[in-house]
Amino acid sequence: MKVGIFETSEEASRVGAEQIISLLEKKPGATLGVATGSTPDGLYAYLRAAYKEGRFTLADSKAFALDEYVGIDPDHPEAYRNVLRRQLVGFTGLTEENLHTPNGQAADPDAAAAEYDQSIKDAGGVDLQILGIGADGHVGFNEPGISLASRTHRDALAPQTIRDNARFFDDNEAKVPRACLTQGIGTIMEARQLLLLAFGENKAEAVKQLVEGAISSRWPATILQAHPSVTVLVDEAAASKLELVDLYRARWDLD
Ligand code: GLP
């Protein structure tokens, strides 16, 4: 795991976006895993600007969302498919057909989950998965206690996540969907590269556990320690609980 610590989230987002652009230079048409939440906003904005400058295109790429709310009106602006449309479709060359999101409307969520895993396999797997992290250590919507080998599945949102996401639903917890379909931890771990971003003091404990904690489903993101290619990009507030900062900086500077 490589940990990059930056003064600002803008700087970290730029480094993350440049990693994606250089992957696309080496492998045009690379498949991306795309996260929602507010963390990747800066990274997506940087990608949109770089696309405008003609530096890359996702025209030949597929993008797979990490997750989707179950039961949300498909026209709701906070349905993750709509969030990702606004962030990426058109503005990065990504087409509507190449944006894949779990079907939160499916009558049979288990079948929809299995189909989603299969569609990732059929696409040849994810080359680079963008990730945020929940304050409780979730990735995607893999909440504490989930199997670290889980495949795409339906789950309940943790109370903490409902509180955290209320800001997208008029600050009203009652309006936050209670369930989701999410790529499983096992699914996420099959991506060839993982790029996780985390900003702000609210994420400091989750980042501490992610980087330095024992692997445990209490903090699902800790399993990322077992992946061979993970880059974690954080600002100083999110890094504030890390013990071995000097080592991470030295390792980062080696490249
Ligand atoms: C959300 C999403 C995750 C995201 C996380 C953090 O609920 N399901 O994919 O990484 O929680 O969100 P944010 O980036 O808004 O802090």
Query: What name is given to the CATH topology?
Result: Rossmann fold
Cα distance spanning the termini = 14 Å
Tally of domains:
1
The helix count comes to 8
Characterize the biggest β-sheet.
7 strands, parallel
Topology summary:
Blueprint: E1 2-6, H1 9-26, E2 32-34, H2 41-52, E3 63-65, E4 67-69, H3 80-88, E5 99-100, H4 109-122, E6 128-131, E7 153-156, H5 159-165, E8 179-182, H6 185-189, E9 193-198, H7 204-212, E10 230-235, H8 245-253
Parallel strand pairs: 1-10, 2-3, 2-6, 3-5, 6-9, 9-10
Antiparallel strand pairs: 4-8, 7-8
Helix pairs in contact: 1-2
Question: How would you characterize the overall build of this protein?
Answer:
It is a single chain. The chain has about 260 residues and is of the alpha/beta class. The protein contains 8 helices and 10 strands. It has a single domain, classed as Rossmann fold (3-Layer(aba) Sandwich). The strands form 2 sheets. Strands 1-10-9-6-2-3-5 form a 7-stranded parallel sheet, with helices on both faces. Strands 4-8-7 form a 3-stranded antiparallel sheet. α2 links the parallel β2 and β3. The longest helix is centred in the first third of the chain and has 18 residues. The mean pLDDT is about 95. The site of 2-amino-2-deoxy-6-O-phosphono-alpha-D-glucopyranose has 14 residues, from α5. The site of 2-amino-2-deoxy-6-O-phosphono-alpha-D-glucopyranose (GLP) has 14 residues, from α5.
List keywords for this structure.
255 residues, alpha/beta, Rossmann fold, three-stranded antiparallel beta sheet, binds 2-amino-2-deoxy-6-O-phosphono-alpha-D-glucopyranose
